[in-house]
Amino acid sequence: ADLADYDEAGIKERTGVTPDKYPQYAALRGDPSDNLPGVPGVGEKTAAKLINTYGDLDGVFAHVDEATPKLRENLIAHEAQVRSNALAIPLVRDVPIDIDVDDLKMGGWDVQELRDLYKFLEFSGAVWDRFMEAVGGVEGASIEATPETEALEVEIRHLDSAGEAATLINELGAASDEPIAMAAGWDGVEGRSAILGLAIVAEVDVAYWVSAELLSDAAVRQALGHLLGQGGRPLRSHRAKELMRGLQGIDLDVRCLDLDTAVAAYLVDPADTQYLLDELAARYAGIDSRSPDAAPSDQLDFDGTGPGTAEAAGREAAAVARLSEPLSAALDARGLRKLWDEIERPLVRVLARMEAVGIRADSQYLTGLAKSLTDEVRELEAEIQEIAGEPFKVNSTPQLRHILFEKLALQPQKKTKTGFSTDAASLEKLAGQHPIIEKLLRYREVEKLRSTYGESLVAEIADDGRIHATFHQTVARTGRLSSDQPNLHNIPIRSEEGRQFRRAFIPADGHTFLVADYNQIELRVIAHLSQDPGLVSAFTSGEDIHSTTAARIYGVEPDAITLAQRSKAKMVSYGLAYGMESFGLAARLGIPVDEASEILKAYFVAFPNVKAYMEATVDEARSRGYTETLFGRRRQIPELSSPNFRIRQAGERQAMNAGIQGLAADIFKVALVRLDQSMEDEGLATRLILQVHDEVILEVPPDEKDRAAELTLDAMRGAADLSVPLEVNVSWGESWADAKG
After folding, report:
1. Is cis: bond before 486, omega within 30 of 0?
2. Which residue in 202, 156, 157, 200 sits closest to 176, CA to CA?
3. Closest C-alpha among 418, 183, 424 to residue 315
4. Rounded to whole angstroms, how far apart are CA atoms 311 and 155?
5. Between the N and C ends of the chain, which has fewer C-beta atoms within 10 Å?
6. Phi and psi of 535, rounded to 5°?
């Protein structure tokens, strides 16, 4: 953007006041950039007129009776805010500075480091260009420029016989404890299709290719089992979980993972989205790992002329070998080694095993459920059209907007770029104004279930009668796990429809489901982190935390708390775990913002250490640039440095949320690792088959029920040493719905 120079005359022309009077003028008008509200009805012209007429704020308020009635009322009501603004707006010019001007000269700087920072902060090219102009420019320093990279040259050595492959693999297993890198060639989606071969890199830029035909040989399998098993040579791979899952399909269990470059990159920078190997190799290792024959990154290889499977896998393994050292150094530099070694690394194998096992699903039941949802959607469409008095496409936003706001003349709640909003939040605010609203909300709910689960779950059932969802370690910035193909985390928890879907998930014949979940883990984490005596006491004494919270907020005895008060207290407690403020609380509870604000204030009076913890967390994140959990998980929050107030506010909510959610995620991951290891150590047939939020599901044979429950409780309760107990709910059932409800 163009910058204009203003002298004293220019400022007078622009604002109507001289520079020495600008702070008082701005105090009346308000300063949105610093979130300083002005006097309602006082804009630039009125503020300038008042200051020029009466000289300063003292003069304005001394002559307030001369103003029009409305202006007089507003000035009197907001005098305290204006006086406060006047103190906050002027620049402070007498700060003691113990440095000379010469010390402030710009020194050297790294163009690539700055470019990476700008991209991480999502600054536009225009911001980069303005900086280049300010510093005099650097030749070729475009924000889109890529770092200097060295082309990766890989020699692919095809092993011609099973004997040659077995000999080489045995030599690799016996020769050294130095890491090897490995990548697979796939017949389709990684981890969910057949392996066409393995590329192994033990020497710099030399990849040995073991084809699927050779992998079928018993001697080759035995050699690989030794190479990859317990005590095998340290293995490095990109997205190792997919490799592990694929190898489990041919009875090979990887027990020697040293580094997963995707998960390591996620730990170093959880704000990334894809963690593509080519990009990581260029960023951290300075190599261009793409094949010279590969299609450009923005094109698809429709004609199949790209590199063959062996070369692609070989290049991937070689890139992993080159990338691993700088990424490993980055883990060490950021204090993330323990987090990787003790939590994320063993978790890779746990998730791979869980994906490979999958969870059994009743396809006939799901088909019937999908049909009933489809029938209800059609019935609701007909009812909505009848209420509207004309046929229209219920899923069409423009047509629905016409029906609601033109034909039925309902009051719009908010406006978007294309017109009045018809989203769920807007419709919920219209509830009770017209019968069509309730039908629309129900239609949206049923249609989402039908489209998301009603049809897709049946398609996800594999030949073994089980659904093998994929679990991700590198998606949520807080460290939480997520799932897809299908996303079993999004099945509704409280609705009857959600229960119906959970009824479709059943254990293997002769087995039972054990479902275990943490009891109020976020609130227990808040109690531990804040060390608030009231919260700690409530949890350690076994009190109902929501009744205790409500009693403190409303100043009554716990036995006098109403259901509504307890519900509000519960919403406040959980809302704080996600950085919710008064506006969000008001929306959740359906109450005015002022009332929500008073409830929050009462909460912080009742539990003052919680407020102190959150403020300290934000201050620390602002000074360090990141938050850090007790297990060392870091999350960068550049929003805290934004000049935009609303973005800074969002950053503050993220900072409050990150420590709580991050620690809860770490605890749950530790529990998964401990639980899987304990069952394996005892040789149990019980299998960990599903994870959803803070809940695990195990498939248990009848003779292992007691021991499985003991190990589950021990693993989950002992996952962290907090100042409050970690309580776990355990239930049993012949379906997920029976166990969980």
Report:
1. yes
2. 202
3. 183
4. 9
5. N
6. -70, -45
Neighbours of 98 (CB within 10 A): 5
- Specify the pLDDT at position 304: 37
**Type and span of the H or E element at 663:** helix 645-681
CA 154 to chain CA centroid, Å, is 36
pLDDT at 303 over 50: no
Q: Which two tokens stand for residue 611?
A: 């407020």
CA distances from 611 to 226, 266, 606 (A): 54, 30, 10
> What pLDDT sits at residue 290?
84
Closest CA to 733 of 693, 676, 685, 695: 695
Nearest of 668, 737, 731, 669 to residue 700 by alpha carbon: 731
DSSP one-letter string for 530-549: HT-HHHHHHHHTT--HHHHH
Q: Sorting pLDDT into bands at 50, 70 and 90, what band is 144?
A: low
C-alpha pair distances (Å), 174 with each of 23, 169, 231, 232, 233? 77, 9, 11, 9, 8
Ramachandran sector of residue 335 (left: φ over 0; alpha: ψ -120 to 50; beta: rest): left
Token output for 264: 């390591």
Alpha-carbon span 124 to 120, nearest angstrom: 11
HEC-encoded secondary structure of 81-135: HHHHHHHHCCCCCCCCCCCCHHHHCCCCCCHHHHHHHHHHCCCCHHHHHHHHHHH
Specify the pLDDT at position 99: 81
pLDDT digits (tens, 9 = 90+) for 376-396: 999 999 999 999 888 989 888
pLDDT in the model for residue 305: 37
Cα(297)–Cα(364) distance, rounded to whole angstroms? 43
Distance CA 673, CA 678 (A): 9
Structure-block tokens of residue 168: 């080489």
- Cα–Cα distance for residue pair 503/736, rounded to 1 Å: 6
Backbone angles phi, psi at 277, to 5 degrees: -60, -45
Instruction: Report the alpha-carbon distance of residue 231 to residue 256 in Å, rounded.
Output: 6
* Res. 360 pLDDT band, cuts 50 70 90: very high
Q: Tell how many helices (H) and how many strands (E) occur in the chain.
A: 33, 20
- Give pLDDT tens digits for 57-81: 999 999 989 888 889 998 999 999 9
pTM for this structure? 0.78
Q: What is the pLDDT of residues 187-224, one digit of tens each?
A: 888 878 889 999 999 988 899 999 999 999 999 999 99
CA 165 to chain centre: 43
- Please name the residues in contact with 711: beta carbons below 8 A apart, sequence gap of 6 or more: 675, 678, 679, 682, 684
- The candidate with the shortest Cα–Cα distance to 270, out of 13, 576, 475, is 475
**Strand, helix or coil for residue 601:** helix
